[in-house]
Request: fold
Amino acid sequence: MLEKNIQSSIKSKLSKKGSLVVKFESPGSAGVPDLIVMAPFGVYFLEVKTATGRLSQLQEHMHAKMRAVGALVYVVRSTEAAEAAHAEAETVLSHRKIDCF
Reply:
């Protein structure tokens, strides 16, 4: 299956769970994950790869930088893996208390 098809399936599935899922495009910041997931419990990021796809060195570097500041970044290869990441992110993020206002 093509990466864009996996992304589309993930968007559809997670949207049905009440999340807003958008393609992450950041000109000038190569290596950012493919998708931003804004869920009722918080925000996390998904890097989508095919079954044989590999992370580039730039992606590995950017993901490490993001994780170092507390971002949740998951590499997934299927809709099922994205659903598992969603469940894990909910567990992790529901324990974080952030007051924005």
